[in-house]
Amino acid sequence: MGLxxxxxxxxxxxxxxxAICAFNIHNLExxxxxxxxxxxxxxxxxxxxxxxxxRFAGADYLVAMAKxxxxxxxxxxxxxxxxxxxxxxxxxxxxAGFTSIMIDGSKHPYTENISIVKKVVELSHALGVPVxxxxxxxxxxxxxxSIMGDGVYTxxxxxxxxxxxTGVDSLAVAIGTCHGLYKKKPQLDYVRLAxxxxxxxxxxxxxxxxxxxxxxxxxCIELGISxxxxxxxxxxxxxxxxxxxxxxxxxxNDPRKLFTPAIDAMKAVVKNKINLVGSADxxxxxxx
Length: 288
Prior knowledge:
CATH topology: TIM Barrel
Mean pLDDT: 92
Oligomer: single chain
Low-confidence stretches: 146-150
Number of helices: 12
Radius of gyration: 18 Å
Order of helices and strands: HEHEHHEHEHEEEHEHEHEHHH
CATH architecture: Alpha-Beta Barrel
CATH class: Alpha Beta
Structural class: alpha/beta
Strand content: 15-25%
Shape: globular
Number of domains: 1
């Protein structure tokens, strides 16, 4: 069916109180694990790549692999730029065929964030591609992204103003999550999330969902989250499986024998997350 944009699927998730997983991919193996499991679960899925992954793998390679999976499995697959850092990166990904864009201007002053996002929205919307932005800052370290401290929480009233001025299609909100693994138990501000949901209608995004308790993810979805980002848990599953092979067979040098267990380990994570957010068996319902 080819790659799709995310808007229709995120709106369906918003209206029906479930979420769609966005899994960060880095190579063929991570992509195969995510897409094959999504097919088995009959779930829409968002593949996403950070600027670091785009530089590592190449935007054109990522799109080509994602298109192959979309044609093979005939489920809705989105190719999304995660935490796009500048206009040139966005342009590169759009030219390659990405079907969803995040531009992250959250580290800049508010008015500059608006200006950055608005420029990307104008470009992406001209091509029919939706845009995600971030308001507040989500702390932690993931891939090539590093935010010192605990971040700055999203102000509900400011979120409404931001959406009105930028025309953004979805919004990543800062409510106490962080990228990477948690060094201490996160204190999520559910009241803040509920207030944001009351004031804005566009789909809301939860970054830093790896390592969160299942009940925390479920409560965030109940309160209005429609997209849940998963990155670190996939990387841990991948690396742990490879390390196990080396531990058991130190002389192993066949990548296929290293990566097959890694794919299986990641598939288990993907299946668990799809069931957690409630997107399994949603493809047919959305289509009709």
